[in-house]
Write a structure and sequence with these properties.
alpha+beta, 60s Ribosomal Protein L30, Chain: A, two-stranded antiparallel sheet, 10 strands
């Protein structure tokens, strides 16, 4: 803190004022206070500036293998596997995901092979695992079919369209499968009857929105 002397000449007074303005400018040029940021260089090494906040990752590619970027943090993809990460006993590594082996290939129309009622696929909006009213109605019909046929085991398999990374889509497919299984359980289907799994984008066939909308689903098969 300093005061201006009334004995300074006009030239000296201008010099002092210029120094004060320069000091104020230097103080304002220090940048935002961490973890706030304006660009990546305001963050620590290995961090990224996302929505003016320093975060661990911006996309899945910023994370290690087997991790996905979730709200700015790298988190392990549940059930991820590769040659270095083994699956639990009784499961196989399919599409980088630990899964219970299929006894039979899934049918494209997601129907059971027995007569009577059929387990139909449930569809989802883009990048979502939320159940819309039409999905809830179909799940209720499937739950009734499971009870009518006395099915002791049903695989609930989540799928995604091909957009996004493989790791992200595996995690999204898993969230969709678990969302459906949980709702089925709330309708009275024993949780032990249902086995949630994810195929991610592996079976996606769409090339535009009309096709992608058919890829975003959960299928069912008896086991």
């Amino acid at each position: 803190m300093f005061t201006l002397s009334t004995t300074l000449s006009p030239r000296g007074l201008r010099a002092v004022m210029a120094f004060a303005l320069g000091a104020a400018f230097m103080g304002s040029a220090c940048g935002p206070k961490y973890p706030k940021c304006e660009e990546d260089q305001d963050c620590k090494a290995g961090e990224f500036c996302v929505n003016q906040l320093c975060q661990q990752c911006r996309t899945d590619s910023d994370c290690e293998t087997g991790q996905a970027c979730n709200a700015g943090a790298c988190e392990a993809v549940e059930g991820y596997c590769d040659e270095n990460i083994a699956c639990p006993t009784g499961q196989d590594c399919v599409g980088s995901r630990c899964q219970v082996p299929q006894s039979e290939p899934l049918e494209r129309e997601a129907q059971t092979n027995t007569g009577g009622c059929q387990l139909q696929a449930v569809y989802f909006p883009f990048d979502s695992s939320n159940l819309e009213s039409t999905a809830r109605d179909q799940i209720a019909k499937n739950a009734q079919c499971i009870r009518e046929k006395g099915m002791s085991g049903v695989r609930v398999v989540g799928h995604t369209d091909p957009r996004g990374t493989e790791e992200y889509n595996l995690a999204l497919g898993d969230r969709r499968a678990r969302s459906v299984a949980q709702y089925m359980s709330s309708l009275g289907v024993s949780a032990g009857t249902l086995t949630p799994a994810s195929m991610g984008e592996e079976l996606a066939r769409g090339e535009d929105e009309s096709g992608w909308s058919q890829d975003r689903k959960v299928e069912f098969s008896s086991r």
